[in-house]
């Protein structure tokens, strides 16, 4: 199965209350980013153990660790979680920038150093969400 097929299978496996919102968010990100590299992480490690929620990833970034090793991964990711939806922006050097830049304006969401969590897409200001997506692809290095 290719990445697009994996994403489609994942989306239809979600509960009804999340599938439409994640599909809408997925399409909005694709519309804002154009032809971007897609990723799908099924949430399992090499041994098949579940270590995270399945995540749809967009774009690419490289994480470099203190020991000099690195990992290529997605720049922006979305996933369903037990209470709603999460958006991840990978590669931020300033762990406060999301709260400072988007926190007061994005709507009803919890923001950490690299994640925005919310219950429903309707809880977010769509204009600020579009700014967040643009920020992820143009400001993060």
Account of the 3D structure:
The chain is an alpha+beta fold. 37% of the residues lie in helices and 24% in strands. The chain has a six-stranded antiparallel β-sheet. It has a two-stranded antiparallel ribbon with strand order 3-4. A hairpin with a 2-residue loop joins strand 5 and strand 6. Helix 2 (16-33) packs across helix 4 and helix 3 runs antiparallel to helix 4. The longest helix is centred in the first third of the chain and has 18 residues, at 16-33.
Query: Which sequence of strands runs across the widest sheet?
Result: 1-2-5-6-8-7
- Which ranges are low-confidence, i.e. pLDDT below 50, for 5 or more consecutive residues? none
Oligomer: single chain
* DSSP summary, beta strand count: 8
If you compute it from the alpha carbons, what radius of gyration comes out, rounded to the nearest whole angstrom?
A: 15 Å
- Summed up, the helix count is 4
Bulk shape: globular
Overall mean pLDDT stands at 91
Which keywords apply here?
alpha+beta
What is the gist of this entry?
With 141 residues, the chain is of the alpha+beta class. Helices cover 37% and strands 24% of the residues. The protein contains four helices and eight strands, in the order ααββββββαββα.
């Amino acid at each position: 199965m290719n990445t697009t097929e994996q994403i489609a299978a994942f989306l239809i496996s979600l509960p009804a209350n999340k599938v439409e919102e994640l599909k809408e968010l997925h399409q909005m990100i694709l519309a804002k980013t154009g032809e971007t590299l897609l990723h799908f992480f099924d949430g399992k490690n090499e041994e098949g153990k579940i270590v995270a929620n399945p995540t749809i990833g967009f774009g690419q970034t490289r994480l470099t660790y203190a020991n000099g090793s690195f990992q290529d991964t997605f720049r922006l990711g979305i996933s369903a979680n037990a209470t709603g939806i999460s958006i991840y922006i990978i590669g931020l050097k300033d762990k406060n920038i999301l709260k400072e830049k988007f926190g007061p304006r994005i709507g009803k969401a919890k923001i950490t150093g690299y994640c925005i969590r919310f219950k429903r897409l309707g809880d977010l200001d769509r204009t600020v969400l579009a700014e967040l997506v643009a920020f992820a692809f143009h400001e993060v290095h």
